[in-house]
Amino acid sequence: MSGATASRVIDQRVANLDELKLERFEQGDKYGCDAVRIGPLLGAKQLGYSYDVVPPGKRSCPFHSHHGEEEMFFIVKGSGTLRYGPETRKVRAGDFICCPTGGPETAHQLVNDSDAPLAYISVSTMLPAEICEYPDSGKVGAFGGASTPRLRHMTKADSGVDYWKDEA
Q: Per the database record, which ranges form the Cupin type-2 domain (predicted)?
């Protein structure tokens, strides 16, 4: 290895929260956060992980459930409310949250209803195909493929067509 500028593999696999470059996201009045997808930065292959900082009064994503990927969250700082299926509960720094696969009964969302930022780490299995349901809006999303851009299709759950339509 030559000099102090040589990059070691081990150093490419480590990132500290205070060194991450967060990107701002906002959508309408409800959604907003500063976030970064950490997995790709460190070369992760089968796990996805990100860091989100959600300002007071916001949430980072819609209420949703996964049929393929399992997720977990770790609250780093702050507090908020976890929506899970038909229930809610307060969460705070130090809480681990498990979101296994399923239907609407496992739908989940973190809401920052406090007066301070809510920061959390999310970890998910990375599968080549995924189906998500969005109970609040009645949508279904299909995601998949190894190529870029990946398939991403959103539709209303009641907009399906018969399997044999246009196959004659």
A: 53-123
CB atoms within 10 A of CB 75: 20
Given this model, what pLDDT does residue 7 score? Answer: 75
Other C-beta atoms closer than 10 Å to the C-beta of 47 total: 12
Q: Under CATH, which number does the domain 23-128 receive? A: 2.60.120.10
> Is a pLDDT exceeding 80 seen at residue 83?
yes
Which pTM value belongs to this model?
Answer: 0.89
165 or 114, which is more confident? 114
Rounded Cα–Cα distance for residues 116 and 128 (Å): 36
- Domain boundaries along the sequence of the chain: 23-128
Rounded CA separation 91/3 (Å): 47
